[in-house]
Amino acid sequence: MNEEIHRLVAGEELYTLFQPIIDGSTRKPIGHEALTRGPEGSPLEQPTALIAAAASAGLSTQLERRCLESALRSYRGLRLEGRLFLNLLPQNLLEWADLADWLNAQLALNRIDPHDIVLEITEHGLTEDEAMLAAAVAPLRALGCDIAIDDLGAGSSGLKTWAAIRPDYVKVDRYFVAGIEEDAVRGEILRSVVDMGRVTGCRVIAEGIENREQYALLLELGVDYLQGYLLGRPQRVPGGNSAVLDALETVTPGPTAECAEDLVLSIPGIPANMPVAEVVEIFRSKAEWTALAVLEGERPVGLVYRDELLIFLTRPLHPEIYNRKPIKSMMTRETVQVEARARLEQVSRVVTARSARAHGDDFIITRNGLYLGLGRTFDLLRQITTQQIQAARHSNPLTGLPGNREIQRHLAQWLARRRHFVACHLDLDHFKVFNDAYGYAAGDQVLLHVSQVVSRSVRPRVDFVGHVGGDDFVFLLRSQDWTLRLTTIIEELSASLVNFHSIQHREAGGLPGIDRGGTQCHFPLLSVSIAAFEVDGTRVITPDVIAERLRQTKALAKAKPGCTCLLATGERVIDLVGDTDSSNRAPRPPAARDVAHA
Q1: What order of strands is seen across the sheet that includes strand 337-339?
Q2: What pLDDT shows up at residue 579?
Q3: Selecting from 3.30.70.270, 3.30.70.60, 3.40.30.10, 3.40.50.300, what CATH number does the domain 395-597 have?
Q4: Quick one: which of 21, 19, 418, 413 has its CA closest to 216?
Q5: CA dihedral defined by 51, 54, 59, 61, rounded to 10 degrees?
Q6: Whole-angstrom distance, CA of residue 237 vs CA of residue 357
Q7: Which of 80, 502, 562, 579 has its C-alpha lying 20 to 30 A from 39's C-alpha?
Q8: What would the CATH number be for the domain defined by 260-384?
Q9: Separation CA 92–CA 90 (nearest Å)
Q10: Per residue in 167-177, pLDDT tens?
C-alpha cells in the first residue's frame, strides 16, 4: 500500500468526479463539488483510503496538491459553469505555507477566476486553535476564493470555527439530512443552522439528499442549496438527474415575512481601489448618504463612513497624503453583514449587539454573498415597531395568537402553493356552563392554557396556530409527525382540563347548568373537540370547502363524549385517539378507525 500511494502521488492516475450543487429556488446547479478517486477497482479508489494511506506515508500535502491539480484541470477541460468546490484538510491548510501562491499560479495556468473557487475545510480534524485556521484562510480569501465549512456537525469544533473564519458557505453533515422526514429534532437543528446562516450572510448547503420528502422538507426549512444522489451522482462528466429535477417542487426565496430585504437602501457600492478623493466627491454630492460599502467585485469587504472620512481629511497634510490612496486603506473592515432573507428579529439582535465602539448605524445587506444595499438601525427599529403594532392589531388580545385575518392569509398561501397540510379546528365543550359557574376570569385562564398547550405542541415556523375568538382555535400543521402532535394535544388537555374544576364537581363527574332551552341540567366537565381535515396538495381546493368539511367533522366530534379528535381524509372520517369517557380520563392509546363516511 505504501508503494502504491507513492506511485499515485507521483503519477497521473488520480481522477476527478463532479457532483452538482442545486439551488432549490431554480432547480439549477450553482456549482459542482470536485471528488477525487484513485484507480477504479483498487484498494485506494475511495477518498478515505487515499487520505489514510497518504497520512501513513507522510504524503498528505503532496496528495492534496495532486487532487487540486486534477480538479482544476478537469474543471477547465469540461468548461463547467458555476462555482468549483474543492476540499482541503485543515492540517494540510495549516502546514502548506505557500498554498495561496501555489493556488494562484494554478488558477492562472488553467485560466480560472479565483472568485469561482470555494475551498471546503472539513470539520473532521479541525484544529482547536481557530485563530491559526483563520490566519491560514486569510491569504486564500484575499486571493478571491470563498471559504466553506464542510460536514458541519460531524465534529466538535464547527461552531467555533464558524465564528472564527466567518465562512461564505456551510455544508451540513449528511447525518442531519438522513431521516429528517422521521426525526423532528434533526429538522429543528437544521432550522437553527439556517437562521445562523441568514443572519451572518452565510449560505447553507445540505448534503446527502436521497428522496423527494427530504428535498421538500429542506426547502421548507429554508436551506439555500442542496446536494445528493437524488439530484445528481458524482460523475466524470457531471449532469443532474433532469427527469427528477423537472418534477421537483421549487420555492421562490423572495421576501416573505418582514426580513432584511425590506430595509435595503439602494446605495451603490464603490470599488476597493477607488481613490479617496473620488469618494469624497461622492459624499459631497450625496449629503444624505452616511456610509458607502466597499466592494471587491460584487462582494462587500468593508464600509467607509462619511463623517469619519471628512473629519480625518481636515487635518493638516492629510488630503495631500491620502487623496490618491485607494479607499480600502481607509475603510472599516469590522462591519455587520446580514443576508437579505434574515428575519428582522435576527437582524435586530446582531445590529444592537454591536459594541459601543461601533462606528455608525449603517450595516451591509447581501443576497447570496453579493452586495444588495445598505440598511440603517433607525429603519430597522421603525420596521420592528410597525411589525409589532400590526401583530397586536390582528392578534387575539387574550392569548396573543394571530386572529382570523392571519389565519385566512396563511390558509390562502398554503393552498396557492399546493402544500400538504392538515387544517384543525379546536372547540371547547361545555365552556359556557363553565363560565357561568366559575366566572369569566376562570374561563380566560382555561383559554390561555389551551393556547399554550397547542402552541408548544406544534413546530415553530412550520406549523401555524391562530385564535378565532372565544373558545375556537384554528391551527394548520405541516409537520410530518402531525398525528403524534394531535394526539399529544388531546392527551395533555384531557389530563389537565379537569383541574380547572372544583373537587366537588370533579367527584360528581360534572356540574349543574342551564341549557339553551332554559332547563336545569347536569353537564360533563370541560373537554375539547378537534376536527381535522387533510389537504393533500394534489388538487385545487378552496377555503370554503375546508371550512365546510371542518364544520361537518366537528359536529361528529362534539357528539362523542370527552376529548375527541376526528380526521376527515378523502371520503372517510377517522377517530385518531379512540373514545374517552365523560369523566375526562386520558384517552386510550391511538387506534385510528373509521367512524363515519362523509
Answers
A1: 337-339, 362-367, 370-376
A2: 45
A3: 3.30.70.270
A4: 418
A5: 0
A6: 52
A7: 80
A8: 3.10.580.10
A9: 5
A10: 989 999 888 88
